[in-house]
Every structure is written in C-alpha cells, then in structure tokens.
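quick q for whoever's on today - can somebody do inverse folding on this one?? i tried earlier but teh output was garbage lol. tokens:
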C-alpha cells in the first residue's frame, strides 16, 4: 500500500501526490479546509498565549465576572468561580487541540471524522450559530462604546432617535470588514491587542483602587449568598464559565492546526485560566468599587466609562472597541466562517463565511441577551453550553478512545471513504448526541433534578462520550495500528519524538 501521509515530530501531513488527488474533490476541499503543510505549522507558544490574552481580556469576561458580585458573591468567591470553570473547560480544549496540531485540519473537517462527510454540517452549524450569537454580543458592546464616544464628542448625536443602533451597525460593519481578511490577520491582531488591553486593565484597576480609597474599601462588598443559596448559584455559574469557552473547546483545531508542535500549543494555552482569573479580579474589584462609590454595581463597563471626563471616555471607548474587535474576529468568526465554507467549498470563501456570520448575528438579538445578567449567564450561556456539550464529548471520545489518535487524512477529503458511514452520515454519532441531551432535558422538566439542567454541559459531555464510545466499539472506520503504519511514512528528525501525547514506532 502506498503511503498517503507523512509523520514527523508528531505532525502528520499529506504527501504531495495525495494532496493533488484530494484537491480534485471540490465539495470537500478548498484552500481553507485543506490540511496544513509542514511549513505552515509556524505558531509558537507565545502566539497562543497572545491569542488567549486577547480573547480573555474582553468585555464579556469583565461582565461575566463582575456580574457575580450583583448575584451576591464577594470578590474571592467570584474569582474562585471563574478560575474553577476555566480550569474545567481547559481540559477538553487541550484534548481537542491535539487533533488540530497533529493533523493540521480545521474543525469542520475534524467533525467529518465523527459525524461523516455530510453529517459534519450538524456540529459545524451548531457551533456557527453560537459563534454568530457571540459576534452579535461583542458588536453590541462595541456599539455601546462607540455611541458613548460620539455622544460625548457630539452632544446632538443623542437627539438622533436610533443613535445606539446606528453606532451598533457601524461597529458591526467594521468587525465584518476586518474578519474578512482571514485567520492569519486574526493572529496578528491578537499579538497587537494583548499588551494594549493588559495596560488598560491595569489602569482601570488603579482608578478603582484610588477612587474607592484603597484595597479594603474596594473589596468590601460583602457576600449576600450563604449556605445552600451560595452553592445554588456557584454550580450553574461555574458551568456558565465553562460554557463561556465551550465553543472554543470544539473549534480550537482552527487555531491549533498552525502550532509548531504539541508542546507549543500546550504551553501557550495553559495561560488561559490565570488570565481569566486576573482579569476577572480586576472586573470584580472595579465593580465592587462602583458599589462603594455610586451605590450600585455597574457590571457593564460602558456604563462606568460614561461617568468619566471626555478624554477618558474617548480612550476608554477605544479600548472597549479594540477589545470587542479582538474577541470577535479571534473567537467568533473562525468557526462560523469555516462552517459556511464547508457547506459549499467551491463557492463560499472565508470572507463570504465572515459576511454570513455577521448577518446571522443580527438574528440572535444581542440587545435582548444582554438585557439582564441572569439572561446573559443562565439563559444564554447555560442553554448553549448544554447544546454543545454532547459534541465536545463525541469529539474527545472519537479521537482519544475510539481511534487512539490514528486518522487517514486522505480519506477525510475523499468520496466513498471509511468516513462516509451511511451516505455521509454517522448514525451512531447522532444517537450519542440525542442520548447526551436526555439528562439535561429531564432536569429541565423535573424540578427535583433541576441540577441536571443547570449543569447541562457537564452531564451531557460525559453521557455522550460514554454512549459514543460504546456505539463505536466495533465500527469498521477505525484504523488498526497496522493499517495506520501502512499509509504513514514516519520521518525521524534531530528533535526526536518527545512530544506531548505522541507515540513512537520503530
């Protein structure tokens, strides 16, 4: 059997002949969906760290953390909640990222592995809808900041009836325009934005420290949740934090596919829980300060910015805008754009997918999602976390438990392949998906078991993973070690094979 893929240092790429053959299948291949070549694995650990810093230092993170103060937590309870949830969700992120780095494939192609060449549209579009919702949320935050700046610089602006929606529309167009430039531009934007947003966060903390009269008054807001009431809020809040990044736990291959090595993506991504905790502490501390200064917890930073002098409103608004653009084009465009590309690779480019993402975001009504903190955390985050949980479980179980990291890259881009299943659909994956949704739905309908709904992501990911592993235990799409060795040419290098999660063969 002729080798169709080459493995070196734990990174697998198609041979030149296999790539030329696969590229003729235009409904499965285009320049964005194809696997990376060896030379395209260029992202160092610092690039991933910058990406996460840019994505974590965003207004939704600030609002998520500071809103917990309004729920009744004190500062350390809220920080603990954020850190716990971030550590939990980092586990599936790293497990799924491994596939992207090893095989250089984006998320929609990875989904072909477990849902089939046609069925992959289901998890891809599910992720696309959530990404579009987040795109709208961040565009709304940016629109609020833009409206605040213009209102301060041009007082008559607020007399214009739909001024807020006009600002939102302008910011939405700016985001779509930047996103159309592609994933490499997204990485460069994150590298620039990370230090800028970090300095702005420090400046905001310094203001809160001074205005509140020191750390003591700044963090003096007492907890109003005690005993059972605290745990009733803590558990769904942790799941809300998990759901906050559950989208990235699915489509992290869109980024990890560019990593130089498993070690690079692993080390770079480990910063995430700590950045979330630090920025959350700043948001919580500043929100506590607003409670001491204004008598009301201002969990939306734009509401706080407009209370400052004009120059501060201008600078603060620009920072909010930069933050919203960074998270939008970094985390919320990639997966939907790729999903739309995967539907019609011959006609839809990444830029076209970015436009469709923006249009879908308008249908998600971000102004309603952000109307209250409870709607934001428990309705929005909780519901979509439950929706995506089974997909996460199936993806992890398929790659690590069912296939033991062995894939046939060429057949992911081929018709009538082992990954076509039944007419392009893996019915076992659909069965596991439905089974994964059952426990949360029971909790939604049966009050004594409501914890199954409030912790929907956790229960659905575990149940779906177990169900999928059992259903796929005899599936013929799995590669044996002998079959994998027959199609894979292994190249040694000066760096050896000491890589995260890698096997060595002689």
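ok took a stab at it. sequence:
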């Amino acid at each position: 059997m002729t080798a169709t893929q080459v493995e070196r240092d734990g990174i697998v790429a198609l041979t030149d002949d296999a790539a030329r053959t696969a590229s003729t299948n235009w409904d499965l291949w285009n320049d964005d969906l194809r696997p990376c070549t060896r030379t395209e694995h260029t992202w160092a650990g610092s690039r991933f760290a910058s990406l996460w810093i840019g994505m974590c230092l965003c207004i939704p993170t600030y609002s998520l953390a500071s809103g917990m103060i309004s729920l009744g937590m004190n500062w350390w309870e809220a920080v603990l909640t954020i850190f716990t949830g971030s550590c939990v969700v980092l586990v599936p992120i790293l497990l799924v990222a491994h596939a992207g780095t090893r095989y250089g494939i984006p998320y929609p192609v990875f989904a072909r592995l477990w849902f089939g060449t046609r069925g992959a549209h289901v998890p891809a579009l599910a992720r696309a809808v959530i990404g579009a919702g987040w795109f709208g949320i961040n565009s709304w935050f940016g629109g609020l900041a833009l409206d605040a700046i213009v209102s301060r610089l041009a007082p008559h602006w607020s007399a214009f009836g739909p001024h807020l929606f006009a600002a939102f529309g302008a910011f939405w167009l700016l985001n779509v325009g930047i996103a159309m430039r592609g994933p490499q531009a997204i990485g460069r934007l994150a590298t620039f934005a990370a230090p800028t947003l970090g300095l702005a966060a420090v400046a905001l903390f310094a203001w809160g420290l001074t205005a509140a009269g020191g750390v003591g008054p700044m963090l003096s807001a007492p907890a109003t949740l005690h005993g059972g009431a605290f745990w009733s809020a803590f558990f769904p809040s942790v799941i809300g934090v998990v759901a906050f990044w559950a989208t990235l736990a699915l489509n992290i291959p869109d980024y990890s596919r560019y990593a130089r090595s498993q070690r690079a993506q692993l080390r770079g991504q480990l910063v995430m829980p700590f950045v979330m905790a630090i920025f959350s502490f700043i948001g919580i501390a500043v929100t506590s300060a607003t409670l001491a200064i204004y008598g009301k917890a201002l969990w939306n930073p734009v509401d706080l910015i407009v209370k400052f002098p004009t120059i501060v409103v201008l600078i603060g608004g620009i920072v909010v805008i930069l933050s919203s653009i960074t998270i939008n084009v970094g985390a919320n465009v990639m997966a939907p754009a790729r999903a739309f590309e995967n539907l019609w690779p011959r006609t839809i480019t990444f830029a076209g997918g970015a436009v469709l993402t923006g249009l879908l975001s308008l249908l998600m009504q971000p102004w309603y999602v952000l109307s209250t903190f409870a709607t934001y955390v428990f309705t929005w985050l909780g519901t979509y976390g439950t929706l995506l949980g089974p997909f996460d479980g199936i993806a992890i179980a398929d790659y690590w438990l069912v296939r033991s990291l062995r894939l046939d890259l060429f057949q992911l881009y081929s018709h009538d392949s082992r990954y076509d299943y039944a007419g392009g659909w893996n019915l076992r994956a659909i069965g596991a998906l439905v089974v994964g949704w059952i426990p949360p739905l029971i909790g939604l309908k049966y009050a004594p078991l409501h914890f199954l709904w409030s912790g929907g992501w956790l229960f659905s990911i575990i149940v779906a993973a177990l169900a999928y592993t059992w259903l796929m235990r005899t599936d013929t799409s799995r590669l044996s070690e002998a079959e994998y060795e027959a199609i894979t040419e292994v190249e040694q290098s000066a760096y050896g094979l000491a890589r995260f999660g890698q096997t060595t063969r002689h």
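fwiw Residues 46-401+421-476 form a domain with the Hydantoin permease fold (CATH 1.10.4160.10). also Residues 494-500 have pLDDT under 50 and may be disordered. so keep that in mind when u check it
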